[in-house]
Amino acid sequence: MEYITAFVIGGLICAAVQILLDRTKMMPGRVMVLLVCTGALLGFCGIYKPFQEFAGSGASVPLLGFGNVLWQGVKEAVDEYGFIGIFMGGFKASAVGISAALIFGYIASFIFEPKMKK
Q1: CA proximity to 94, closest of 72, 74, 67, 70
Q2: Segments of the chain assigned E as strands
Q3: How far apart, in whole angstroms, are the C-alpha atoms of residue 99 and residue 12?
Q4: How far is the CA of 32 from the CAs of 17, 55, 89, in angstroms?
Q5: If DSSP codes are grouped into helix, strand and coil, which group holds residue 45?
Q6: 53 in Cβ contact with 25 (< 8 Å)
Q7: What whole-number distance in Å separates Cα of residue 112 and Cα of residue 80?
Q8: How far is residue 97 from each of residues 93, 102, 108, 117, measured CA to CA in Å?
Q9: Which of 11, 24, 36, 75 is 20 to 30 A from 82, comparing alpha carbons?
Q10: Low-confidence spans in the chain with pLDDT less than 70
Q11: Cα dist from 15 to 23, 37, 79, 89, whole Å
Q12: Domain boundaries, the chain
């Protein structure tokens, strides 16, 4: 049942984003920033953790989850280091995910033949 819940919640998030892209004049980059900021805001309000416990990876994988990870990292770093934690917490918390995306993207560029759009 956990897989179905994650699939449905993740699908609803993606569908909402697609509707936002289709029905508004917002560019994809702005929608992505909106998702990250929304995830951070929901984490700040204490809403995201119960939502993530219910939805599992359906909530943690999309950009909402990335925003929440950034917020949690900043929160922990501020508690530990004070003001300077604002600048280092997000990097520390998200470093593994960003590094993995870069490494796997680089490996994929060797396996597949990348082409520029015309």
Answers
A1: 70
A2: none
A3: 27
A4: 9, 20, 21
A5: helix
A6: no
A7: 43
A8: 9, 9, 16, 27
A9: 36
A10: 117
A11: 12, 18, 36, 31
A12: 2-111
